[in-house]
Amino acid sequence: MEIEIFSEDDQLARLIEVMKRHGAKPERLDKVLSMIDDLLNQDAYLDRLDWDAVRGAIGLNLNFYVDHSLTFEQMVYAACDVRNSCVTEEVFPVKGNGIVAFEARHLGFNRGVYSRDAWRKIGSEDTKNPWAPAEFDQLLAYGASFPDKPLKFPIVGLGSIGKVGDRYVVPYLGRSGPDRSLDLMGLDRLFPTVFRFLAVRPVARKS
Q1: Parallel, antiparallel, or unpaired: how do β-strands 132-133 and 196-202 relate?
Q2: Which pTM value belongs to this model?
Q3: Which of 30, 64, 83, 188 pairs with 140 at a CA distance of 20 to 30 A?
Q4: Which residues pair with 12 in a beta bridge?
Q5: CATH fold for domain 59-202
Q6: Which of 198, 205, 201, 202 is nearest to 52 (CA)?
Q7: What is the mean pLDDT of residues 167-177?
């Protein structure tokens, strides 16, 4: 069956430009072409592809900065449009100095999980250069840097645990209608499959 390819010349020109920009060697290009062959297969469900997980698997993580010169309210305002009224500086105090660079990745499961499962998974991802659950300020800075991510799936920061009444809670970024939201989840609750857990680590300085 013949498949019509739209803007063929433009797409081929773009592919050649990308190859030149990265200086692709033949053996590396062969691997890329094999992956493209799989992705173009009509039976491939591209809408199920977690591209952030793919980037993380090949070492391309998402970098962002935490700016501690910002106030609590400024951090929250940059990360969301609406928030749970229980998210306060008393519940999640922010500490730190200067501007710190981090790299991030999302960890997801194909089942509902409890926080202890996610903690264990984050800690085992890279024992030589370990990841840590994102703290409150890191979650907010990430949300400000990548505002589209919480609209795709809820993102939890397990590194900061707050107490509201007699409940222990953790913050997460998600969506409320068209808006980005900042909400809370009980620490002892089962996190549904759709949730992702934000793991972070300082960006390694190049020697």
Answers
A1: antiparallel
A2: 0.74
A3: 188
A4: none
A5: Mannose-Binding Protein A; Chain A (3.10.100)
A6: 198
A7: 97
Whose structure tokens read 């900065």?
A: 65
Interstrand relation of 155-156 and 196-202 (parallel, antiparallel or unpaired): parallel
CB of 115 closer than 8 Å to CB of 170: yes
